[in-house]
Structure formats: C-alpha cells, structure tokens
From TrEMBL:
<protein>
    <recommendedName>
        <fullName>Transporter</fullName>
    </recommendedName>
</protein>
<feature type="compositionally biased region" description="Acidic residues">
    <location>
        <begin position="672"/>
        <end position="682"/>
    </location>
</feature>
<keyword id="KW-0769">Symport</keyword>
<keyword id="KW-0479">Metal-binding</keyword>
<feature type="binding site">
    <location>
        <position position="311"/>
    </location>
    <ligand>
        <name>Na(+)</name>
    </ligand>
</feature>
<feature type="transmembrane region" description="Helical">
    <location>
        <begin position="337"/>
        <end position="358"/>
    </location>
</feature>
<comment type="similarity">
    <text>Belongs to the sodium:neurotransmitter symporter (SNF) (TC 2.A.22) family.</text>
</comment>
<keyword id="KW-1133">Transmembrane helix</keyword>
<feature type="transmembrane region" description="Helical">
    <location>
        <begin position="513"/>
        <end position="536"/>
    </location>
</feature>
<dbReference type="Pfam" id="PF00209">
    <property type="entry name" value="SNF"/>
</dbReference>
<keyword id="KW-0915">Sodium</keyword>
<dbReference type="GO" id="GO:0046872">
    <property type="term" value="F:metal ion binding"/>
</dbReference>
<dbReference type="GO" id="GO:0089718">
    <property type="term" value="P:amino acid import across plasma membrane"/>
</dbReference>
<feature type="transmembrane region" description="Helical">
    <location>
        <begin position="98"/>
        <end position="119"/>
    </location>
</feature>
<feature type="transmembrane region" description="Helical">
    <location>
        <begin position="557"/>
        <end position="580"/>
    </location>
</feature>
<feature type="transmembrane region" description="Helical">
    <location>
        <begin position="304"/>
        <end position="325"/>
    </location>
</feature>
<dbReference type="GO" id="GO:0015187">
    <property type="term" value="F:glycine transmembrane transporter activity"/>
</dbReference>
Length: 703
C-alpha cells in the first residue's frame, strides 16, 4: 500500500520531483515510491511512504516569481552579463595584444563561456530554485557551494557599488562648464603651490581623480579619514539599488529596459561621433593591428579565458536565479547563444568606440606638443613656420635636440599609453572628452552609460545573492523588502572602508582577492556536480525535455572535459601568480604626480586571506557536517540522498552512504510497519512540520 504524503513548503534541502521516464515506459514509470523513515516515537508512527510523480518542479511548492515576458528576461540577463568589463577591460586587452587577441577570445568563448553559461541557466530553469536550493537538491553534501557563492557575491557587491558611487560623482560634475577636470587649479592652497605642482606633474584628469575625487592617501596604513562626499553618494547608490531590487524581479524587471538599452544608444552616439573625428583611424589601426607573436604567449590565452569567465558573470548564482524564473519549456539553449553573441559583439563594439576617440585624443595631444615646440623654437630665435616644422625636426641631430628645450612628440607613443579599469574610464577617456566640442554633453552621456552598465550588473549580482537568502527556510516568512533593505544596509556600513582616502586601494584588494579564486573554484565544482553527481546523461535529457534540442558532442566534450580543465588551469595559474608575484597596489605619490607600486602591509594580507577563506570554507564544512551527520537535519535531506541514487552510476558510491543509525529499530526485511494492525487503513502519520513542533515541545518540557 502506498500513501501520498502531503506536500510541504520548500526548505532549501528539497529535491524537485523526478520527471516521467521517456518513451512511455508504462503507466507507473513516472512514479517513484520511497520509504522515508519517520521520527521514532511520534504519534506511534514508524514511517511514511512517499510517492513522487513527475511534473513541474514547483508543482508541490509555492508559486515562484516569474518574468513578465521574454523581453524582460533577455534584457535582465544582457544587462547583467554586459557590464563595465566590456568597456574598460576588453579594449585594454585588445590594445595590449592587438587584433590577434580576438582569436583566443573567440576560442575561449566557445570552449568555456557558452557551455558554463548553459549549465547555470539550464539547471536553474530545471530546478526552479536559487543557488542554495539547486546544490542541496543535487546532493545535500554539496550545499556549501551555494553558500560559498553567496559569500563571494556579497564581497563583490560591496565594492561594485563603490564604482557606481564614483560614476555618480563624475556625472554630477559633468553638468559644469567648463568641466572641472579640464584644467589645473590656479589658486594657492594653504599658502603653498602644492596642488598646482601636483597637477602639473601629473595631468588635469589624473589630478581631479586622485586629489579631488578620492583625496587619495599616500598608503593603506594612512587612511586619511572618511570623505563625506563619497560617503553621501555611496548612501545614494545603495538607496537607488534598494529601490530597484526591493521586490525582486517584480521591481528590477522594469528597470532593465533602461539599464540594458540605454548603453547601446550612448555607444551608437559615440560611434557616429568618434569615427568622424580626426585620428579615429589611427586609434582603430593601432588597436586591431595583429600581433601574431602574442598568440605564443600563454598569458594571452589565460587573459582571454579570464575575460570570458568574468564577462558572463558565472558562479555568482545570478544566472541560476534568472533561469529559475523562466517557464519550464523555455528554450534556454537559444537564450545562451543569443546572449553570448550579444556579449562578444558589445565588447568589440565598445572597443571600436573607445579607441576611435582615444585615437582622436592622441592626435590632439601630438598637435599640442608640436605647437608648443614651434613656439619654443620661435622664442629661441629659430623662425620656423608650421609647414616647415616637421621637416626641420627630422633634420635635427640628437646633439642639437639635447640643447633645445623640446618635447618628443610621437603619435605611436601616445597610442601606446595603455590603461584599464578606473584609469581608462576616469583619467584617459575623460581627457579625450575634454577635447570634444560641447564636452559637458559628452561627459553626461558617457557617465550615464557607465552608471547604467554598473546598475545592470549590480542588479544581477544582488539578485543571485538575495535569491539564495530568500530560499533559506527561516527567512521565508519575512517580506522581501525587509530582507533586501537589511542586506543593503549591511553592505553600506561595511562600505565605509571604501570612503576613506585609501578607498581605491581597498577596492583593488577586494577585486584581486575576494572573487578571483573563490568564483573559479565554485564554477569548477558546479560543473563537476552537474556532470558527475547529477549526471551528464540526466542533464542532457533535461535540456532536451525543456528545449527539444539534445546537446551533442560539442557540449559533452566541453562540459565533461575541456570546461573543467580550462577552469583548473585558470585556478592554478591565479594561485601560482599570487605566490610568485608579491601582491602590490598603486599608491598615489603627490610629490611625483604618479602612482607608485607598493607592497600590501602584512595585516592587509591577513584580511585578504580571510576573504579567500570565507568564500571557500562553507564547501568543506557543509560536506563534513552532512557526510558524518555531525548535526541532525530534517528528513528531506535523507529523501534527497535516496532519490538521487538512480541518477547516474557515478553517484552511487556518494549517495548510497546514508546514515540511518538513529532508526535502528525499523524492520530491515521489508515487512509491514503496522505492527498489530490487520486492517487496510493507513496509519495517522504526522507531517514533518508536526514532528518538528512535537520535538520542540518535548525539548522545552525537558528543559
């Protein structure tokens, strides 16, 4: 006799009901009957028998939030994947390695990006759960993967909103005419020429960034105190983010229409303007001139793999969350292909725009340099006209040049001035904007675009973390806005460290250590879990059931071999690089007007080690606690262990070792659990919630 137990709310440990077997294997083929030991001594019941039929994963649980339409999902995932790295990291790599970088980038996109993307999106759509629930469902021992992903995502969210804060600061200053970074200060500060000298030694844009915006401290040990203007804008940034994500995709889904589409509008405007500027061709030629010899450098391939990995936002839990809001029959394979192509196209498109304008800047700087030299020659009594200047400079010998106070004006040298990250956005590109007519207008457009890109990615990052938090059973009774507000408040308070004079140094520390190793390891374990614990055959079948497309040899090879291998190489290379090269940061030296590479203090490296450890420890801790039954968990964990035994051959050894010692009094010969009852009436078996309440009441009475 089989009794169907009443469906219970999901608690993060439950498993999605199994699907019916394919090919019509019989009327009962889609039903799995499980004997789950009950709590001894509760209501006289010895055990309950559960029948799980195939169907939608959420059929027995609460209704899960869903996208309003397909466009909302696509814009959300594009806004998350296409972020600031497409603007200030990819162009830098192309500049350093020439057009040849597109070859390793395309190969890594095919071998690493697309397969991993489909794993996260597909498993989220199949399970209809967040990151925590998915890995608990595949096997309770793997629950630490979801926790580790959430912790790493928390660290990244902390500093990512600081970048949004800086975008706000530059955006508000862009409404001034002339732009405040267009010229050096002319006033004497505190009776000294310090600011004027500092600006002359660096540049107008570098001075505005390091001295005006950040008021940078000389090192990490001298924080320089809280900068109130950064703190107030950080508060604004978190308020904006909270208002967007406070109700999950019900609120954020409406904002993505702006954060995802507006950057393309701005890029197109800059493209039309950029390609018409003098020097645009020189910038594009410099960027995409193939440097074939770079293909023999392993670091180029490592950079390509790293760029693909982080540009997709893999292992944050966000892709799993986005997929879980899709209908079960959504074609996730097509979505992955479209988003991957869009991501790559955006990176290349942004590079064209960036270097068309940087080429214009380089030509403008060379012309300024030549004009300055021409004036110096005229002052020294050498009468040279503008048309004669170039020929005259070519005829000068090195000895004659050494006696003349002339600058070396070279276009190639200007184009070789590489920058990435904040240096490209807030120093190099801002200088190019100054050279444009109606520069405030272009500045407003550019920093509005950066703000939209940053918000789009931050929405996705927080969605991955909050979806994991919402799946925690104890928090399901609390309204989403309260949980979201608490998370944002905690992030804002921790973010005080980024509002000091050493704020940029701390941001680089978090960027270098909090996510690098943790995210790669999480992605590696995710792939192993899906392919070898859940089972590659079952996952392949899931994709076919959902999309009608059965992944072929390309996906099988990349999922089971090449993907894990590439991630292992990236992980080992990152660890070796940290060991061989002592970590440093660029500290601003006001006396020289430039950044100086400085070793991190020992106590700072201890904090870095703590961040790495905090992102990795949940994985072995949860594994050990559940493997050796150090803590008593609810029955659903044992259900998951039993139900996954038939998933794949590779899981039998892991799944079969379930500790039921506490139920030693249950019959082992398959006899009826109703000791003296000869009737066919089913026993009155309490639900799991009732058993927990009774155990709690007994513990209270005992205490």
């Amino acid at each position: 006799m089989t009794m169907v137990a009443k469906a219970e709310p999901r608690n993060g440990h439950e498993l999605a009901p199994l699907n019916a077997r394919p090919n019509g294997a019989g009327a009962g083929a889609g039903v799995v009957t499980l004997v789950v030991p009950g709590a001894p001594g509760v209501g006289g019941a010895r055990a309950s028998v559960v029948s799980a039929a195939g169907g939608p994963p959420d059929a027995a649980g609460p209704v899960r939030a869903a996208w309003s339409n397909k466009m909302q999902f696509m814009l959300s995932i594009i806004g998350y994947s296409v972020g600031l790295g497409n603007i200030w990291r990819f162009p830098y790599l192309c500049q350093q390695n020439g057009g040849a970088f597109l070859i390793p980038f395309a190969i890594m996109l095919i071998l690493e990006g697309i397969p991993l993307f489909l794993i996260e999106l597909g498993i989220g759509q199949k399970m209809r759960l967040g990151s925590l629930g998915v890995w608990n469902t595949i096997h309770p021992w793997l629950g630490g993967i979801g926790i580790a992903s959430c912790i790493v995502t928390f660290f990244v969210a902390l500093y990512y909103n600081v970048i949004i804060t800086w975008c706000f600061y530059y955006l508000f200053n862009s409404f001034k005419n002339p732009l405040p970074w267009a010229e050096c200060p002319q006033e004497i500060s505190n009776g000294t020429l310090g600011p004027v000298r500092e600006c002359e030694l660096s540049s107008e844009t570098a001075y505005f960034w390091y001295r005006v915006t950040l008021d940078a401290a000389p090192n990490m040990e001298d924080s320089g105190g809280i900068k109130w203007w950064i703190l107030s804008l950080l508060l604004l940034a978190w308020i904006v983010v909270f208002c967007i994500v406070m109700k999950g995709i019900q609120s954020s889904g409406k904002v993505v229409y702006f954060t995802s589409l507006f950057p393309y509008l701005v890029l197109t405007i800059f493209f039309v303007k950029g390609v018409t500027l003098k020097g645009a061709g020189a910038g594009l030629q410099h960027m995409y001139t193939p440097k074939v010899e770079k293909l023999l450098d392993p670091k180029v391939w490592l950079d390509a793999a790293t760029q693909v990995f982080y540009s997709f936002g893999i292992a944050f839990g966000s892709l799993i969350a986005f997929g879980s809001y899709n209908p079960p029959k959504n074609n996730c394979v097509r979505d992955v292909i479209l988003v991957s192509i869009t991501n790559a196209f955006t990176a290349i498109y942004a590079s064209v725009v960036i270097f068309a304008i940087l080429g214009f800047k380089a030509v403008a700087n060379v012309e300024k340099c030549n004009l300055k030299n021409l004036r110096l020659l005229n002052v020294t009594g050498i009468n040279v006209t503008g048309t004669e200047y170039e020929d005259y400079m070519k005829e000068l010998t090195d000895e004659e040049k050494s006696h003349l106070p002339l600058e070396f004006c070279n276009l190639q040298e200007q184009l070789d001035q590489a920058a990435e990250g904040t240096g490209l956005a807030f120093i190099v590109f801002t200088q190019a904007i100054v050279e444009l007519p109606f520069s405030p207008f272009w500045a407003v457009l550019f920093f509005s675009m950066l703000l939209a890109l940053g918000l789009g990615s931050q929405i996705g990052i927080l969605e991955g973390m909050l979806c994991t938090i919402f799946d925690i059973e104890i928090l399901k009774r609390i309204r989403k806005p309260y949980i979201t507000g608490s998370v944002c408040l905690i992030c804002f308070l921790v973010g005080f460290i980024f509002c000091t004079g050493a704020g940029e140094y701390w941001l680089k520390l978090f960027d270098s250590f909090s996510g690098t190793i943790g995210l790669v390891l999480v992605a590696f374990l995710e792939t192993i879990a899906v392919m070898y614990v859940y089972g590659h055959k079952k996952f392949t079948q899931d994709i076919e059931d959902m999309t009608g497309y059965r992944p072929g040899w390309y996906f099988q090879i990349t999922w089971r071999l090449l993907g894990p291998l590439l991630m292992a190489i990236v992980l080992v290379s990152s660890i070796v690089d940290m060991i061989i090269k002592k970590p440093q940061y660029g500290a601003w030296d006001a006396s020289e007007g430039k950044t100086v590479n400085t070793d991190y203090p020992d106590w700072v490296m201890v904090i870095a080690g703590f961040m790495i450890t905090a992102g990795l420890l949940p994985i072995p801790i949860v594994f050990c606690l559940r493997r050796f039954q150090c803590l008593k968990f609810d029955v659903n964990i044992h259900q998951g262990s039993i139900r996954r035994i038939d998933t794949t051959v590779s899981t039998k050894e892991m799944m079969g070792d379930v500790d039921f010692d506490e139920y030693h009094d249950l019959p082992q010969d398959g006899s009826d659990y109703n000791d003296d009852d000869d009737d066919d009436e089913p026993p009155n078996i309490p639900s799991a919630n009732q058993r927990r309440k009774q155990r709690f009441a007994m513990e209270v009475m005992d205490s």
